Amino acid sequence: MILIMLGAPATGKGSVAEILKEKLNIPSISSGDIFRKNISEETEFGKKIKVFMDKGELVPDDLVLEMITSRLNEDDVKNGVILDGFPRTLKQAEALDKMLEKENKKVDMVVNLETPRDELLERTTNRRNCSNKECNSIYNLILHPPKVEGICDKCGSPLYQRDDAKPEVAKNRLEVYDRETAPLVNYYKKTGVLYTTILSQRINRMKDEVAQDVIEELKNKGL
Ligand code: ADP
Ligand code: ZN
Is 205 a catalytic residue? Predict the structure, then answer.
């Protein structure tokens, strides 16, 4: 099964993907995590993409595709995968379709998460990430604070604020989303695989409920 998580920055794609990967027993690939790992390990690839990420711009398609194609060729994704943060442009979506076609596969469902804009901005700037690359837990100082300030509940590592959680960068990322990624909603609507749902703490519609609804929807579709 090929599942795509779509949604503006900080919608909660990653958190829902984490729940779904356990329930569906397939791996989740986060392009942002792969990129950040390359940056922290100072790989050649990491050096090329850092400038874009620091500004909240998208990494150019050719670089993204080089990295994601090789990841999608690894054995653990043969039975299915959740894509979190990829594709993010029409070009990437088309390239993914071509890639899957060669293996007689297709995108089965695109989960399009919607969250009110002001909530997104608030969420992004209050976001703190675990510094342990193996853990990657995400917290929010208001909505989901760690039990001990500045420390990850799960692994005890220090938390930090990602550069892209700074207000100017967060705002730019939303603009980039509207321009580059939002057109994917229509792209997938046309092929009938789009499942749009709301994720908003303000109306108490949380990630677990959303994940449960996705599972239901997959069942309804016989997937
Ligand atoms: P979030 O989960 O907050 O939406 P991500 O971790 O997915 O953020 O992505 C962080 C940054 O990594 C993006 O702002 C962008 O610079 C880069 N990035 C991640 N995935 C892609 C992609 N598919 N195409 C281009 N850039 C990407
Ligand atoms: Zn941790």
Answer: no
Catalytic residue among 36, 88, 123, 128: 88
Pairing verdict, β 109-114 and 194-198: parallel
| pLDDT value for 165 | 85
**Of 21, 17, 11, which Cα lies nearest the Cα of 115?**
11
Beta strands at 28-30 and 81-84: parallel, antiparallel or unpaired: parallel
Is the separation of the CB atoms in 13 and 118 below 8 Å?
no
**Domains defined along the chain, listed by start:** 2-116+167-220 (3.40.50.300)
Strand partners, 139: 128
* Alpha-carbon gap, residue 47 to 50, rounded angstroms: 6
pLDDT in tens, 22-47: 999 999 999 999 999 999 899 999 99
> What does the block give as tokens for 67?
């990295």
50 as an active site residue: the answer is no
Specify whether the CB–CB gap between 170 and 9 falls below 8 A: yes
Active-site entry in 162, 166, 171, 205:
162
| pLDDT for res 123 | 85
Strands 127-130 and 138-140: antiparallel
Cα-to-centroid distance, 35 and ligand 2 (Å): 18
Asked about 88 being catalytic, the answer comes back as yes
Nearest to 81 by CA among 24, 38, 137: 24
